[in-house]
Automatic annotation (TrEMBL):
It comes from Trichomalopsis sarcophagae. Residues 30-57, 59-84 form the C2H2-type domain. InterPro entries: Znf_C2H2_sf, Znf_C2H2_type. This is C2H2-type domain-containing protein. Keywords: Metal-binding, Zinc, Zinc-finger. PROSITE patterns: ZINC_FINGER_C2H2_2. GO terms for molecular function: zinc ion binding. The keyword Cytoplasm does not apply.
Length: 84
């Protein structure tokens, strides 16, 4: 019995997705010159280089002095101080 065309299209899309996911990471368009991490978008590489790669954490909790590389993580951390 033949499969309906919609099922064939879904199987084809799944096959294409699997092939895409199996591609080597080097195919990403932007590579960090410091650590070699690859990114598909330039702004992701810029964020990585500005806040993450070889950079000390820039954001510090004024209460316990815990440091974070990203402000949003510090904001989440500071909520723990409000609960007590």
């Amino acid at each position: 019995m033949k499969k309906p065309s919609a099922e064939l299209e879904v199987e084809s899309a799944k096959d294409e997705l699997e092939q895409f996911l199996e591609q080597p990471k080097e195919s990403a368009g932007y590579s960090c010159p410091r650590c070699g991490n690859n990114y598909s978008r330039s702004h992701s590489l810029n964020r990585h280089m500005k806040f993450e790669c070889g950079v000390e954490p820039q954001f510090e909790c004024p209460i316990c002095h815990k440091k974070s590389k990203h402000k949003h993580n510090l904001v989440l951390h500071m909520r723990t101080h409000q609960k007590s």
